[in-house]
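Hi U.,

Before I forget, here's the chain from the pilot set. I'm dumping it here mostly so it's searchable later in email.
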Amino acid sequence: MWIGLAIVAVIVIFLIGTYNSLVSLRQRIKNAWSQIDVQLKRRYDLIPNLVNTVKGYATHERETFEKVTQARNMAINASDVNQQAEAENMLSGALKSLFAVAESYPELKADANFRQLQEELSNTEGKIAFARQFYNDTVMKFNTMIQRFPVVLVAGMFGFHKEEYFNIEEGSAAREAVKVEF
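Structure:
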């Protein structure tokens, strides 16, 4: 009888420990996503200022400004990881086009406000990259854990499912080099 109770106790302790570990990782994923969201919101706030600064110098580049604004709005309204990744890819491509336009205007590149906004956006991009990396690392740990035996049994019992990575799609504008033409 004592052996039976000991086996049940070990199983219960294993279930509790595994469940708590999975919950902790799931919460860590949510936290990592919120850190990405914070940096993306900062980026979205910087973009209109940057566009307005460039508009002052490059009034005939309307199509580029519209693409940046449209991509920003899509990114703000994305509802899940896949939509967010797709929207961010479009936004990165649109921003590259905006900076390519800026390259054509030496007086704009010399503008202190433009340089400051460009530096802030560059710093924010670095923070976004770090936050994405942390998110993807946490998702990898979680996905690996829920696929290992015997944790896979507990994960299935309590409804833990694979999380999506934040990826840049192959062939997306975010992977392309900026083309500057004069």
